[in-house]
UniProtKB/TrEMBL annotation:
Its EC number is 6.3.4.15. One of its GO terms (biological process) is protein lipoylation. The lineage of its organism: Bacteria, Bacillati, Bacillota, Clostridia, Peptostreptococcales. GO terms for molecular function: ATP binding; biotin--[biotin carboxyl-carrier protein] ligase activity; DNA binding; transferase activity. It is an enzyme of class 6 (ligase). It comes from Alkaliphilus oremlandii (strain OhILAs). Signal peptide: none annotated. Coiled coil: none annotated. This is Bifunctional ligase/repressor BirA. CDD domains: BPL, HTH_ARSR.
Length: 325
């Protein structure tokens, strides 16, 4: 019940909601509403009351409080188990190490990561209180070969959430980055374990630079944050909830019929690579190709100088550009 009250107050953040409306909406007495509000206030929620106006919720600060996020995700399967750390080595490492006993759809968040990871052992800078450092634990009953496609689902979910919330022209740099104005705001790391014909778990890690105002020297030329591009601080909780809701919708329609059509439409519409020359790096070999399209499976169709087309399934793709990124 308290989650429902919080949900109603969040939906009207900063504006009063009358006791009468809450009573009607929730089917409980005004006294019961008042008692729940008291408990929420004791739990630290900044809820003010005014005679004849009702109740209003003000944001305390930008801290990621699990109760707030839970209330915003009420009724959703993704995030029904939510774990929020103040500090951790890596949310993906935690997800992998505890996958056995974590429920399908568990979301792990941390205010900071001390050993955030990118692909192939690279570091992911995750300073405290600035970004979204999040992992989703999934246990779908789909063939292991299909598991890699969750990266595209996550990319579509994040890109759309950023665009809807900020209006920024966020683009997907296949396979696992989101860029704004040519710089990286988000990276996705998908890790999977299973047997020949069964996935044990997939951990999809999403790192987003949200309110960072500076970056370590090594990445400052390639990285940016939403705050830098948007010019204003962004509510991380709101972005998290949008991403999870987008992901849930796309992911469920995918695992039910293995159809990626909606995801591919988003990934194509907002592609940073279609029509561009890119450098494909496989181990130590590098070559320049032009991206022709993204196919129905979410893979890249590229064309080499002699007009020959081929499909790229994964691997490191680097766009040639002014910043080398
Ligand atoms: P990636 O291998 O594509 O990118 C890693 C590279 O990106 C680094 O080598 C560095 O050059 C650059 N980089 C590092 N930190 C940042 C940053 N904050 N912003 C922009 N560029 C950066 C991308 O791997 C996948 C990243 C996933 C991160 C999430 S966070 C939650 C989860 N936990 C975890 O340890 N990783 C994932």
């Amino acid at each position: 019940m308290r989650n429902k009250i919080l949900e109603a107050l969040y939906a009207n953040k900063g504006n009063y909601v009358s006791g009468e409306i809450l009573k009607e909406k929730l089917g409980i007495s005004r006294t019961a509403v008042w008692k729940h509000i008291k408990i929420l206030q004791d739990q630290g929620y900044n809820i003010q009351t005014a005679p004849r106006k009702g109740y209003v919720l003000f944001e305390a600060d930008d801290k990621l409080l699990s109760k707030e996020i839970e209330s915003l995700l009420w009724g959703h399967t993704m995030g029904r188990e939510l774990i929020v750390f103040d500090s951790i080595d890596s949310t993906n490492t935690y997800g992998k190490n505890n996958a056995d006993h974590l429920m399908d759809g568990t979301i792990i968040l941390s205010e900071e990561q001390l050993a955030g990871r990118g692909r192939r052992g690279k570091d992911w800078s995750s300073p405290k209180g600035t970004g979204i450092w999040m992992s989703m634990v999934l246990k779908p009953d789909i063939p292991p070969t299909e598991g890699v496609k969750t990266t595209q689902i996550a990319a579509a979910a994040v890109c759309k959430a950023i665009r809807d919330l900020t209006g920024l022209d966020a683009l997907i740099k296949w396979p696992n980055d989101i860029v704004v104005n040519g710089r990286k705001v988000c990276g996705i790391l998908t890790e999977m374990a299973g047997q020949l014909n069964k996935i044990d778990y997939i951990v999809v890690g999403i790192g987003i630079n949200v309110n960072n105002t500076e970056f370590p020297e090594g990445i400052s030329a390639v990285a940016t944050s939403l705050q830098i591009e948007y010019g204003k601080k962004i509510d991380r909780k709101e972005l998290i909830v949008r991403i999870i809701k987008n992901f849930e919708a796309l992911y469920h329609s995918y695992i039910e019929n293995l159809n990626l059509t909606e995801v591919v439409a988003i990934v194509r519409d907002y592609s940073a690579v279609i029509g561009k020359e890119i450098k494909v790096i496989h181990g130590t070999s590098e070559r320049i190709v032009t991206v022709h399209d993204i196919d129905e499976e979410g893979f890249l169709i590229v064309e080499s100088g002699d007009g020959k087309r081929e499909v790229i399934f994964s691997g490191e793709v680097s766009i040639r550009g002014k910043n080398g990124y």
